[in-house]
Amino acid sequence: MDGLRFAPANEASWDDLQAILTGAAGRCQCQRQRLGDHDWWYMPEAERAAILRAETHCDDPRATETIGIVAYQDDEPVAWCAVDRRGVYGRVRGSPVPWQGRDEDPDDESIWAIACVVVRKGHRGQGLTYPLIAAAAEHARARGASAVEGYPMLTGGGKVIWDELSVGPVGPFLAAGFSEVTHPTKRRLVMRLDF
């Protein structure tokens, strides 16, 4: 895709990230996966946003850590992907779904996870999720991950709302080289790319 580039979130502006996170994604502020349902549910949106801002270090290109990437199309912010060490995602750690049939340490810091994918309204349906997942995997690899996981959903070719599909569809993970680890529910897969 011509003019498409990816930046670690600390190299993006907070305003750019907020331009992507609208609607349900704006209410979530990419905190539900990190905090887990109970803590997230009772937290005001402003607090969620403050936490995300601190975690991303937006507007601070010298920051040594960040928790995701921002996609730009010709300098317009168009997509966000949360990618970080798997153990920081309280919802992943607390759910039996990703661990069904697996026996490994959820706190292994060398394993990263793609926990949230958001394409900005007006830019959906253009295939941006494919290069976004590949860039998120590269972001994890470049920061020392030995593997990166995703927890995408099978859509059956149907239209799915973002609330359900914030984890991404299966196709972009397959295209980026991920393989199925388990199929714990009818629509959910655990996928992984080892480096």
Question: Would you mind describing this structure in some detail?
Answer:
- This is GNAT family N-acetyltransferase.
- It comes from Microbacterium ureisolvens.
- With 195 residues, this protein is an alpha+beta fold.
- Helices cover 33% and strands 22% of the residues.
- The protein contains 9 helices and 7 strands.
- It has a 7-stranded mixed sheet with strand order 1-2-3-4-5-7-6, sandwiched between helices.
- The chain is globular and about 40 Å long.
- The relative contact order is 0.16.
- The mean pLDDT is 93.
Number of continuous helical runs? 9
Number of strands: 7
Q: Beta-sheet strand percentage?
A: 15-25%
Averaged pLDDT, please? Answer: 93
Supply the helix-strand structural class.
alpha+beta
User: Low-confidence stretches at least 5 residues in length (pLDDT < 50)?
Assistant: none
The biggest beta sheet reads: 7 strands, mixed
Q: What share of the residues lie within helices?
A: 25-40%
Short overview:
The protein is α+β, with helices and mostly antiparallel strands and 195 residues long. It has helices at residues 14-20, 23-28, 32-35, 37-42, 45-56, 90-94, 129-142, 162-165, 170-175, and strands at residues 4-8, 68-73, 76-85, 111-119, 147-150, 179-182, 190-194.
